[in-house]
Specification:
single chain; mainly beta; Thrombin, subunit H; 7-stranded antiparallel sheet; 5-stranded antiparallel sheet
């Protein structure tokens, strides 16, 4: 395709590189490689069942689930077909629970403040609409009340059929975007997180809420359509 004189959108990456918008789902490599770690050191990750190639050098490796989730590092070397060296030490070393993506893209976005009007006996929730993916692909949500710079920490660990999964003591709520298509075909999926909202005008409780979204994209394009505060008036 000839892009001469075309306007193209660029976004900045955490590794200092620039990425083209809507130009594929991966970075550096043409296809993402996923798997589960079988071992690691401070500066490496291993997968005994992998077939890593030298073409992966310069690409990212992202921990998308399990121990060390959310970490992204640049691959600096490939000592063998089952081991990759990363350019910066892990904050938390991956272990056999850690699912990784090589060549994927890690993105995040934080909203402004949403108003939380009284519910008059109902409930309020953050509702995320998204396009279901074919393979495992994860989105995360952190919730910030009022002007707090720290996100809400979950008090219980729960797996929700219609909502984000939570883990006690952690702030990140997680949703696997993988799902079967509905009878409507490519209909959006939705997931919710109930909010601690006011039930009356003079309640001394939260007045505003903001949210931070993260997504880990591999071979499936991730489409997050909307994030809104919903609930009874």
């Amino acid at each position: 395709m000839d892009y001469s004189y075309a306007v193209r959108n660029l976004v900045g990456g955490e590794d200092g590189n620039s990425l083209l918008v809507d130009e594929g789902t991966t970075d550096i490599v043409t296809s993402a490689t996923t798997g589960t770690a079988t071992g690691a050191t401070n500066t490496s990750i291993e997968d005994d069942g992998a077939s890593f190639t030298t073409a992966m050098i310069g690409a990212s490796v992202i921990i998308q689930n399990g121990t060390g989730v959310g970490q992204m590092r640049t691959i600096s070397a490939r000592p063998s077909a089952t081991e990759l060296t990363v350019s910066e030490a892990w904050d938390t070393n991956p272990d056999p629970t850690s699912e990784y993506i090589v060549g994927g893209i890690y993105a995040y976005y934080k909203t402004g403040l949403f108003d939380l009007p009284p519910t008059q006996g109902g409930k309020r929730a953050l509702v995320l609409a998204y396009q279901p993916t074919t393979n495992n692909a994860y989105a995360e949500l952190e919730v910030y009340y009022d002007h707090d710079i720290n996100p809400e920490v979950m008090k219980v660990s729960e797996r929700h059929k219609l909502g984000f999964d939570t883990k006690s003591g952690e702030s990140r709520l997680r949703q696997n975007l993988k799902g079967a298509l509905s009878r409507l075909g490519r209909a959006p999926g939705t997931t919710i997180h109930e909010l601690d909202a006011r039930s009356a005008m003079r309640d001394i409780t939260h007045r505003y809420v903001a949210a931070k979204l993260r997504a880990y994209q591999g071979n499936d394009a991730i489409s997050l359509y909307s994030l809104e505060v919903a609930g009874a008036e």
